[in-house]
Design goal:
Radius of gyration: 21 Å
Number of domains: 2
CATH architecture of the largest domain: 3-Layer(aba) Sandwich
CATH superfamily of the largest domain: Type I PLP-dependent aspartate aminotransferase-like (Major domain)
Number of strands: 15
Helix content: 25-40%
Strand order of the largest sheet: 2-8-7-6-5-3-4
Structural class: alpha/beta
Number of helices: 11
CATH topology of the largest domain: Aspartate Aminotransferase, domain 2
Strand content: 15-25%
Order of helices and strands: EHHEHEHEHEHEEEHEEHEEEEHHEH
Largest sheet: 7 strands, mixed
Bound molecules: pyridoxal-5'-phosphate
CATH class of the largest domain: Alpha Beta
Amino acid sequence: MIYLDNAATTPMDRAVLEAMIPFYENNFYNPSAFYQASVKTKMQVESARRKIAGLLKVPADTIFFTSGGTESDNWAVRLGAFSEGEKKKHIITSAIEHPAVLNTMKYMQEKGYEVTYLKVDRNGIVDLDELKSAIRKDTILISVMHANNEVGSIQPIKEIGEIASQNGILFHTDAVQTFGHIPIDIEDCHIDLLSVSAHKLYGPKGIGFLYIRNRKDFGKLLFGGSQEKSLRPGTENVPGIIGMSKAAELSYERMDSDYIYIENLRELFIHKLKEVMPEIVVNGSPINHLPGTANITFGGITGESLLIALDQQGICASAGSACSAGAIEPSHVLMAMGLSAKEASRTLRFSFGRCNTKEDVINTINSLKSICHV
Ligand code: PLP
C-alpha cells in the first residue's frame, strides 16, 4: 500500500504510541482526583502543556486541550465572535477555509452576525487590500487559515495579523496543516487564537488544542467541571495529551530535515508526472506552499475514476471534492481559486509525509501511466 493522503491524517509515530501506553495501563488516573497517583498524572499533563507552549514560545496557560481541529475552530470562531458581547457583529474569513470554520460561520450568520468571505487568487492566496477594505468598525474577528488543506497554499498570516492588531480585531488562524510542519511565530504574526490537531503531525486522533492569547472575556463552548480552567471541561484525554506533546516535540526536532525530505518527494513527483503528462496543472501557490501537498488537475480523466483506479492498485490519494446528499460537489477551494467545475472534477490531492519514499513516488507514477495509458 502506498499512502499519499498525509494531509488527511498521518500514521502515528511508534515513539508517540510508546509514550502513550503507560497512560492506558498503570498510569490511568483521573488528573482531578486527590490521591498522589492522580496528582502525578496531573503533573504529567501540565508538563505536556508546558512542552507544547515552549515550542510555540507562549505561556503554558494559553494552551487549552480540545478534541481536535474541528472543536478548536468552533470554539475560536464562536467565542471569539462573542468576546465583546453584542457590540460587534462582523467577522472576516476566507472562502477557502476548512468546513470546521465555514460551517461555524454559517451558524454565526444564523445568529445575526455578518460574515465577509475574502476571495482568493488563482494560487489560493487572499488579497490583503481586500482584507483592509472589508474591515468595519464592528469587525470583531478575522479568521484566516495558515495553510489550506486541499492545495497547500500558505497565507500571509504575518501581514494579516498586523492588519488585525492595528485595527484592534482578534485574529484566529487554523494551523491544523502547519503546526509541527513549518515554523509559526505567534508574536510576530499577532495571533490571538490558533487551532491545532495532533493527528496531522504523527500524533493520535481526537486530541488538539486551542491557543488563546487572552482568556479574559473568552467564553466556553462546553459547560461542566473545572478542567482547563473551567473553559473546556471534561476529564482530560491524558494519553492523547501525552501523545500530542511527544508528536509535537518530535516534529519540531525533525522539522527542517522533514521539510527538505518531503518537499523533495513532492518535487520529484511533479517532475516525473510532467514528463509523462505535460498537460497536468499543479494548483496552489508555486512559492508559498506546504512541503508535501501536490494538488493536480489531470487532462482527460475524472478525479473520481482515477481515485478508484489508484485505490485498486493500493495507492491512497484524495479527491478535491466533498460528497454531499449523494452528489459529488466540486471543491469549494478549487472553485474559489477560479477553476471550472470540470477542472475541479479532474483534480486529485497527493500529500506526502515522512513515511513516504522515492519508491512510492516512482511506483505511483508508473500506476498513473498505466491507468491513463500514457
Ligand atoms: N482544519 C483543517 C485545515 C484541517 O485540515 C482539518 C482536518 O482535516 C481540520 C481543521 C479538522 O481537524 P480534526 O480532524 O482534528 O477535527
